[in-house]
Protein backbone atom coordinates (compact mmCIF):
# COMPACT_ATOMS: atom_id res chain seq x y z
CA UNK A 1 0.00 0.00 0.00
CA UNK A 2 1.31 3.43 -0.97
CA UNK A 3 -0.01 6.43 0.98
CA UNK A 4 0.49 10.08 0.06
CA UNK A 5 0.73 12.79 2.73
CA UNK A 6 0.42 16.29 1.30
CA UNK A 7 2.03 18.66 3.77
CA UNK A 8 5.26 18.36 5.73
CA UNK A 9 4.59 20.44 8.83
CA UNK A 10 4.83 18.86 12.25
CA UNK A 11 1.49 17.06 11.99
CA UNK A 12 1.93 15.89 8.41
CA UNK A 13 5.41 14.58 9.19
CA UNK A 14 4.22 12.79 12.33
CA UNK A 15 1.34 11.21 10.41
CA UNK A 16 3.72 10.04 7.68
CA UNK A 17 5.65 8.16 10.36
CA UNK A 18 2.44 6.61 11.71
CA UNK A 19 1.28 5.49 8.26
CA UNK A 20 4.71 3.99 7.51
CA UNK A 21 4.01 1.27 10.09
CA UNK A 22 1.40 -0.33 7.81
CA UNK A 23 2.20 1.05 4.35
CA UNK A 24 4.85 -0.33 2.05
CA UNK A 25 5.70 3.24 1.02
CA UNK A 26 4.71 6.76 2.06
CA UNK A 27 5.13 9.86 -0.09
CA UNK A 28 5.54 13.16 1.79
CA UNK A 29 4.93 16.35 -0.19
CA UNK A 30 6.99 19.37 0.84
CA UNK A 31 6.24 22.89 -0.31
CA UNK A 32 9.95 23.76 -0.30
CA UNK A 33 12.30 21.62 -2.44
CA UNK A 34 15.17 22.26 -0.03
CA UNK A 35 13.19 20.74 2.85
CA UNK A 36 12.39 17.66 0.76
CA UNK A 37 16.09 17.30 -0.02
CA UNK A 38 17.00 17.64 3.67
CA UNK A 39 14.51 14.94 4.67
CA UNK A 40 15.78 12.60 1.94
CA UNK A 41 19.38 13.16 3.01
CA UNK A 42 18.96 12.88 6.77
CA UNK A 43 15.65 11.09 7.40
CA UNK A 44 14.61 14.03 9.61
CA UNK A 45 12.46 17.14 9.29
CA UNK A 46 14.61 19.75 11.04
CA UNK A 47 12.15 22.57 10.38
CA UNK A 48 9.19 21.05 12.23
CA UNK A 49 10.18 17.85 14.08
CA UNK A 50 13.89 18.05 14.88
CA UNK A 51 15.29 14.96 16.47
CA UNK A 52 12.62 12.60 15.10
CA UNK A 53 13.84 10.07 12.52
CA UNK A 54 11.41 8.97 9.82
CA UNK A 55 11.29 5.40 8.51
CA UNK A 56 13.38 4.79 5.41
CA UNK A 57 10.34 4.14 3.21
CA UNK A 58 8.99 7.69 3.74
CA UNK A 59 10.01 9.50 0.55
CA UNK A 60 9.91 13.31 0.58
CA UNK A 61 9.42 15.30 -2.63
CA UNK A 62 8.21 18.71 -3.77
CA UNK A 63 6.65 17.08 -6.86
CA UNK A 64 3.04 16.34 -5.93
CA UNK A 65 2.53 14.03 -8.92
CA UNK A 66 5.42 11.82 -7.78
CA UNK A 67 4.05 11.73 -4.24
CA UNK A 68 0.49 10.70 -5.16
CA UNK A 69 1.34 8.33 -8.02
CA UNK A 70 -0.03 4.90 -7.14
CA UNK A 71 -1.50 6.00 -3.81
CA UNK A 72 -4.46 4.10 -2.37
CA UNK A 73 -5.02 6.80 0.27
CA UNK A 74 -4.30 10.54 0.23
CA UNK A 75 -3.89 12.55 3.44
CA UNK A 76 -4.26 16.35 3.41
CA UNK A 77 -1.99 18.04 5.95
CA UNK A 78 -1.90 21.67 4.83
CA UNK A 79 -3.21 24.64 6.85
CA UNK A 80 -6.97 25.09 6.55
CA UNK A 81 -6.74 28.56 5.00
CA UNK A 82 -4.57 27.15 2.18
CA UNK A 83 -6.63 24.02 1.59
CA UNK A 84 -8.88 25.23 -1.23
CA UNK A 85 -6.10 26.75 -3.32
CA UNK A 86 -3.87 23.71 -2.83
CA UNK A 87 -6.62 21.25 -3.75
CA UNK A 88 -7.56 23.29 -6.81
CA UNK A 89 -3.98 23.14 -8.01
CA UNK A 90 -3.66 19.43 -7.23
CA UNK A 91 -7.04 18.21 -8.46
CA UNK A 92 -5.74 16.97 -11.81
CA UNK A 93 -3.02 14.91 -10.10
CA UNK A 94 -5.01 13.35 -7.27
CA UNK A 95 -6.15 9.76 -7.88
CA UNK A 96 -9.83 8.84 -7.22
CA UNK A 97 -9.08 7.28 -3.82
CA UNK A 98 -10.28 8.14 -0.30
CA UNK A 99 -8.94 11.44 1.04
CA UNK A 100 -8.42 12.04 4.77
CA UNK A 101 -8.33 15.70 5.79
CA UNK A 102 -6.27 16.72 8.83
CA UNK A 103 -6.82 20.49 8.57
CA UNK A 104 -9.00 21.95 11.32
CA UNK A 105 -10.74 25.28 11.16
CA UNK A 106 -13.14 27.42 9.15
CA UNK A 107 -12.25 29.07 5.87
CA UNK A 108 -12.16 32.83 6.34
CA UNK A 109 -13.68 33.68 2.94
CA UNK A 110 -16.53 31.12 2.86
CA UNK A 111 -17.16 29.93 6.42
CA UNK A 112 -16.71 26.31 5.31
CA UNK A 113 -15.08 23.48 7.26
CA UNK A 114 -12.28 21.41 5.77
CA UNK A 115 -14.47 18.54 4.60
CA UNK A 116 -16.82 20.98 2.87
CA UNK A 117 -13.90 22.60 1.07
CA UNK A 118 -12.56 19.25 -0.12
CA UNK A 119 -16.00 18.19 -1.36
CA UNK A 120 -16.31 21.48 -3.26
CA UNK A 121 -13.11 20.82 -5.17
CA UNK A 122 -12.67 17.07 -5.49
CA UNK A 123 -14.74 15.06 -7.96
CA UNK A 124 -15.39 12.03 -5.73
CA UNK A 125 -17.34 11.56 -2.51
CA UNK A 126 -14.94 9.75 -0.19
CA UNK A 127 -13.64 12.68 1.86
CA UNK A 128 -12.98 11.86 5.50
CA UNK A 129 -11.76 13.89 8.47
CA UNK A 130 -9.37 12.82 11.24
CA UNK A 131 -9.47 14.51 14.64
CA UNK A 132 -8.65 13.79 18.27
CA UNK A 133 -6.22 14.65 21.07
CA UNK A 134 -3.24 14.32 18.75
CA UNK A 135 -0.26 16.53 19.63
CA UNK A 136 2.22 15.95 16.82
CA UNK A 137 5.42 15.89 18.87
CA UNK A 138 4.12 13.17 21.20
CA UNK A 139 2.86 11.01 18.35
CA UNK A 140 6.13 11.37 16.45
CA UNK A 141 7.93 10.04 19.53
CA UNK A 142 5.64 6.99 19.61
CA UNK A 143 3.68 7.97 22.70
CA UNK A 144 0.17 6.45 22.88
CA UNK A 145 -2.77 8.34 21.39
CA UNK A 146 -6.25 7.79 19.97
CA UNK A 147 -8.28 9.55 17.30
CA UNK A 148 -11.41 9.23 15.19
CA UNK A 149 -11.81 9.20 11.42
CA UNK A 150 -15.23 10.33 10.25
CA UNK A 151 -16.76 9.45 6.90
CA UNK A 152 -20.22 8.93 5.47
CA UNK A 153 -19.38 5.36 4.37
CA UNK A 154 -18.54 3.23 7.46
CA UNK A 155 -16.59 0.69 5.39
CA UNK A 156 -14.35 3.37 3.89
CA UNK A 157 -13.82 4.95 7.31
CA UNK A 158 -12.84 1.55 8.71
CA UNK A 159 -10.29 0.99 5.94
CA UNK A 160 -8.79 4.41 6.65
CA UNK A 161 -8.59 3.55 10.35
CA UNK A 162 -6.84 0.29 9.49
CA UNK A 163 -4.19 2.27 7.59
CA UNK A 164 -3.57 4.57 10.56
CA UNK A 165 -3.83 2.17 13.49
CA UNK A 166 -0.58 1.02 15.09
CA UNK A 167 0.28 -0.39 18.53
CA UNK A 168 0.63 3.20 19.77
CA UNK A 169 -1.85 5.13 17.60
CA UNK A 170 -5.46 3.97 17.65
CA UNK A 171 -7.95 5.23 15.05
CA UNK A 172 -11.70 4.64 15.45
CA UNK A 173 -14.32 5.02 12.69
CA UNK A 174 -17.36 7.30 13.13
CA UNK A 175 -19.94 8.74 10.74
CA UNK A 176 -20.57 12.20 12.27
CA UNK A 177 -18.50 14.21 9.80
CA UNK A 178 -20.19 17.50 10.72
CA UNK A 179 -19.59 17.00 14.43
CA UNK A 180 -15.91 16.17 13.96
CA UNK A 181 -15.44 19.21 11.70
CA UNK A 182 -17.15 21.51 14.22
CA UNK A 183 -15.15 20.13 17.15
CA UNK A 184 -11.85 20.38 15.31
CA UNK A 185 -12.45 24.02 14.44
CA UNK A 186 -14.01 25.20 17.69
CA UNK A 187 -11.44 23.68 20.04
CA UNK A 188 -8.76 26.00 18.68
CA UNK A 189 -10.83 29.02 19.71
CA UNK A 190 -11.30 27.56 23.20
CA UNK A 191 -7.55 26.94 23.42
CA UNK A 192 -6.97 30.64 22.75
CA UNK A 193 -9.36 31.56 25.57
CA UNK A 194 -7.88 29.08 28.06
CA UNK A 195 -4.41 30.32 27.19
CA UNK A 196 -5.56 33.89 27.89
CA UNK A 197 -6.68 32.79 31.36
CA UNK A 198 -3.27 31.29 32.07
CA UNK A 199 -1.33 34.19 30.62
CA UNK A 200 -3.32 36.68 32.68
CA UNK A 201 -2.79 34.61 35.84
CA UNK A 202 -6.51 34.19 36.54
CA UNK A 203 -6.24 30.76 38.16
CA UNK A 204 -7.42 27.17 37.79
CA UNK A 205 -11.08 27.89 38.57
CA UNK A 206 -11.36 30.37 35.73
CA UNK A 207 -9.47 28.05 33.40
CA UNK A 208 -11.85 25.15 34.09
CA UNK A 209 -14.91 27.39 33.74
CA UNK A 210 -13.76 28.83 30.41
CA UNK A 211 -12.94 25.37 29.04
CA UNK A 212 -16.37 24.07 30.08
CA UNK A 213 -18.23 27.05 28.62
CA UNK A 214 -16.33 26.59 25.36
CA UNK A 215 -17.33 22.93 25.19
CA UNK A 216 -20.95 23.88 25.82
CA UNK A 217 -21.02 26.42 23.00
CA UNK A 218 -19.21 24.00 20.69
CA UNK A 219 -21.91 21.38 21.28
CA UNK A 220 -24.69 23.93 20.80
CA UNK A 221 -23.27 24.98 17.43
CA UNK A 222 -22.91 21.34 16.44
CA UNK A 223 -26.54 20.66 17.32
CA UNK A 224 -27.68 23.55 15.12
CA UNK A 225 -25.68 22.09 12.23
CA UNK A 226 -27.03 18.56 12.72
CA UNK A 227 -24.14 16.96 14.61
CA UNK A 228 -24.54 14.33 17.31
CA UNK A 229 -24.14 15.32 20.95
CA UNK A 230 -21.99 12.30 21.75
CA UNK A 231 -19.32 13.50 19.32
CA UNK A 232 -18.55 16.42 21.62
CA UNK A 233 -18.12 14.12 24.60
CA UNK A 234 -15.67 11.87 22.76
CA UNK A 235 -12.16 12.00 21.36
CA UNK A 236 -12.85 14.61 18.68
CA UNK A 237 -14.71 16.85 21.14
CA UNK A 238 -13.70 16.87 24.79
CA UNK A 239 -10.55 14.84 24.13
CA UNK A 240 -9.06 17.19 21.56
CA UNK A 241 -10.36 20.22 23.47
CA UNK A 242 -8.51 19.27 26.66
CA UNK A 243 -5.26 18.43 24.86
CA UNK A 244 -5.21 21.60 22.77
CA UNK A 245 -6.34 23.90 25.58
CA UNK A 246 -3.92 22.73 28.26
CA UNK A 247 -0.68 21.67 26.56
CA UNK A 248 2.29 23.92 25.89
CA UNK A 249 2.74 21.90 22.68
CA UNK A 250 -0.41 23.58 21.31
CA UNK A 251 0.27 26.70 19.25
CA UNK A 252 -3.25 28.01 19.87
CA UNK A 253 -2.69 27.67 23.61
CA UNK A 254 0.65 29.46 23.35
CA UNK A 255 -0.90 32.34 21.40
CA UNK A 256 -3.60 32.64 24.06
CA UNK A 257 -1.00 32.74 26.84
CA UNK A 258 0.87 35.52 25.04
CA UNK A 259 -2.37 37.48 24.57
CA UNK A 260 -3.11 37.03 28.27
CA UNK A 261 0.28 38.59 28.97
CA UNK A 262 -0.93 41.56 26.91
CA UNK A 263 1.24 40.99 23.85
CA UNK A 264 -0.28 42.33 20.62
CA UNK A 265 -1.71 39.64 18.34
CA UNK A 266 1.10 39.80 15.78
CA UNK A 267 3.74 39.43 18.49
CA UNK A 268 1.78 36.62 20.16
CA UNK A 269 1.61 34.64 16.92
CA UNK A 270 5.30 35.22 16.23
CA UNK A 271 6.27 34.00 19.70
CA UNK A 272 4.11 30.86 19.38
CA UNK A 273 5.67 29.91 16.03
CA UNK A 274 3.80 28.22 13.15
CA UNK A 275 0.13 28.45 12.27
CA UNK A 276 -2.44 28.96 15.05
CA UNK A 277 -5.68 28.14 13.22
CA UNK A 278 -7.88 29.61 15.95
CA UNK A 279 -6.83 33.14 15.01
CA UNK A 280 -8.49 32.90 11.58
CA UNK A 281 -11.17 30.43 12.66
CA UNK A 282 -12.72 32.57 15.43
CA UNK A 283 -13.97 35.43 13.20
CA UNK A 284 -14.91 32.95 10.45
CA UNK A 285 -17.07 30.97 12.91
CA UNK A 286 -18.76 34.19 13.98
CA UNK A 287 -19.59 35.06 10.38
CA UNK A 288 -21.05 31.60 9.85
CA UNK A 289 -23.16 31.77 13.03
CA UNK A 290 -23.44 35.11 14.89
CA UNK A 291 -25.07 33.40 17.91
CA UNK A 292 -21.73 32.47 19.49
CA UNK A 293 -21.08 34.73 22.51
CA UNK A 294 -17.99 32.76 23.59
CA UNK A 295 -16.42 33.20 20.16
CA UNK A 296 -17.49 36.84 20.06
CA UNK A 297 -15.49 37.65 23.20
CA UNK A 298 -12.40 35.85 21.87
CA UNK A 299 -12.66 37.80 18.62
CA UNK A 300 -12.89 41.05 20.58
CA UNK A 301 -9.53 40.25 22.20
CA UNK A 302 -7.97 39.31 18.85
CA UNK A 303 -9.09 42.67 17.43
CA UNK A 304 -7.80 44.61 20.43
CA UNK A 305 -11.30 45.74 21.37
CA UNK A 306 -11.25 44.11 24.81
CA UNK A 307 -8.56 42.96 27.23
CA UNK A 308 -8.26 39.24 28.05
CA UNK A 309 -9.31 39.94 31.64
CA UNK A 310 -12.41 41.79 30.46
CA UNK A 311 -13.27 39.00 28.03
CA UNK A 312 -12.94 36.29 30.66
CA UNK A 313 -15.07 38.30 33.09
CA UNK A 314 -17.79 38.59 30.46
CA UNK A 315 -17.64 34.86 29.72
CA UNK A 316 -17.98 33.90 33.35
CA UNK A 317 -20.76 36.40 34.06
CA UNK A 318 -22.78 35.04 31.13
CA UNK A 319 -22.51 31.45 32.37
Can you characterise this structure?
With 319 residues, the chain is of the alpha/beta class. It has two domains: 2-175, Rossmann fold (3-Layer(aba) Sandwich), CATH 3.40.50; 183-318, N-(1-d-carboxylethyl)-l-norvaline Dehydrogenase, domain 2 (Orthogonal Bundle), CATH 1.10.1040.10. The strands form two sheets. Strands 5-2-1-6-7-8-9-10 form an eight-stranded mixed sheet, with helices on both faces. Helix content is 52%, strand content 14%.
Biggest beta-sheet profile:
8 strands, mixed
Strand content: 5-15%
Mean pLDDT: 96
Give the CA-CA distance, first to last residue: 50 Å
- Please write the string of helix (H) and strand (E) elements: EHEHEEEHEHEHEHEHEHHHHHHHH
Strands side by side in the biggest sheet: 5-2-1-6-7-8-9-10
Question: Which bin fits the share of residues in helices?
Answer: 40-55%
CATH class of the largest domain: Alpha Beta
CATH architecture of the largest domain: 3-Layer(aba) Sandwich
Number of strands: 10
CATH topology grouping of the largest domain: Rossmann fold
Q: What would a concise description of this structure say?
A:
The protein has 319 residues and is of the alpha/beta class. It has helices at residues 10-19, 33-42, 64-68, 80-90, 114-121, 136-140, 154-164, 177-199, 204-224, 235-246, 251-260, 265-272, 277-288, 293-302, 308-318, and strands spanning 2-6, 25-29, 44-45, 49-53, 58-61, 73-76, 99-101, 127-131, 145-150, 169-174.
Amino acid sequence: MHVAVLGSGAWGTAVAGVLAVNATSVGLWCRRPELAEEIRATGRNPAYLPGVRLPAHVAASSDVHAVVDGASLVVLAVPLQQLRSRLTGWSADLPPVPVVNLAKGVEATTGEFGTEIARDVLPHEHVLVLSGPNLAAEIARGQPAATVIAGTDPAVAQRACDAFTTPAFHAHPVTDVVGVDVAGAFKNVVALAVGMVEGAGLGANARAAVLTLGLSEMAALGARLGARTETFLGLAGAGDLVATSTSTLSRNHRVGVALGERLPLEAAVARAGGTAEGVATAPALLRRDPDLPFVRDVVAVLRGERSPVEAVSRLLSAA
